[in-house]
Amino acid sequence: MAMTRELIGNAARDGDLAWVRLTVFGQRIDRAAGEGPGLAGLLREVEGRTLLDAASVPGERLATDALHDALGPAVSAAPSDERVAVAMSGGVDSAVALLRVRDAGHEPVGVTLRLWTDPAGKGSERVCCSPASVVAAREACQALGFAHVTLDLRESFRTAVVDPFVRGYARGETPNPCVRCNGSFRFGALLAFAKRIGASRLATGHYARIAEHRGRLLLARGADPEKDQSYMLARLDPRFLPRVWFPLGEQGKHETRAEARAAGLAAATRPESQEACFLAGDDYRDFLSRQGLESREGQVLDAEGRELGRHDGYWRFTPGQRRGLGVATGGPVYALKTDPGTNAVFVGSRESLARREVSSGTGRLFVPAERVEAKLRYRSPASNATVSPLARGFRLRLDEPAYGVAIGQAAVLYEEDAVVGAGLISASR
What we know:
Elements: E1 4-13, E2 16-25, E3 28-35, H1 39-46, H2 51-54, H3 61-71, E4 80-87, H4 92-103, E5 107-114, H5 131-143, E6 147-152, H6 154-170, H7 177-196, E7 199-203, E8 208-213, E9 216-221, H8 230-233, E10 244-245, H9 253-262, H10 284-290, E11 298-301, E12 307-311, E13 334-339, E14 344-348, E15 355-360, E16 364-365, E17 371-375, E18 383-389, E19 394-402, E20 410-415, E21 418-424, E22 427-428
Parallel strand pairs: 4-5, 4-7, 5-6, 7-10, 11-14
Antiparallel strand pairs: 1-2, 2-3, 8-9, 11-12, 13-14, 15-19, 15-22, 16-21, 17-18, 17-20, 18-19, 20-21
Helix pairs in contact: 4-9, 6-7
């Protein structure tokens, strides 16, 4: 049974404040009140509309910020085969994905996740989840007459992604927060929203594909190897794939920008979003220092335990790192591992980095597999390997040694272009 309720929204910008109070019966706005620049006209426009319809009404930025603060947690709709939720970052990829959904004859509804970013970062307004990006995404949708909803997930994102990133470095690991975010947190929130608004699918601007492989739908590499994002998405549960759409998976970035320019989209010239958006353009070491990891002098040791130099924090180093070690041995040396307990960094030759066996205690094989291509870091080439399932996870035996294998990074397994398994690296030798 429909009930009457009140929704409250607030916003602040450049010293100005705005608030709205919506009296809603079911999903329809009966009365709208509030104060702030530009609100009077916007509230007149949304009275009598459904919450989803109200999310398509443009207005002055502060006024729409306040309105959408009220709408975000409450908007829902009955299921519709034609409705598609589109994840919007404010960048060119998601803007073109929106066009693709529209041109396929669907009703797009944009959704942007407001995530926590470090306020001390150098580029906090340029990342994909900043207030400025939220506004850009909203304006891109509303300029085309489509609804846009913002979900404020700052605290849950910090708990689910940022805090494990900090704890991982404190343990001497090299975590990849983008794998945790994209393959779990982000898609979980987006798919839940898509269900709430009755959307049949979720579309995103990722450069990846979905392919049938050995009788099952699996994530697959994007057609452009330079932009392929399947590694970052690899932990996405294949059960969700029937509800996911990657409209850009068959093309490259240059084609996307050309499409955006031809359509006159403001996002056509917008720069790439940052990796690890919560760093807000800052160096991860500076971020970790602000999060409480202590800068404390320790030893740089060789494999025999001889001191070669000093450093100012073990967590500043990751396996394979060559720069910043501050030692001179007559030949190149690399960070091999760290010991958080003693604050020591161990270094050695490149040959000392070689690993033939890699295990993932959290790994999953999505289909049975024996021979795979294993990608062990985002920027590293894949290596041929034999995979063996374990009671928990899997083990890889590499045909050729890999260098710079780091605990906490993702091991993503491919057959041809299909992702047949993925997990976080827990050990190597």
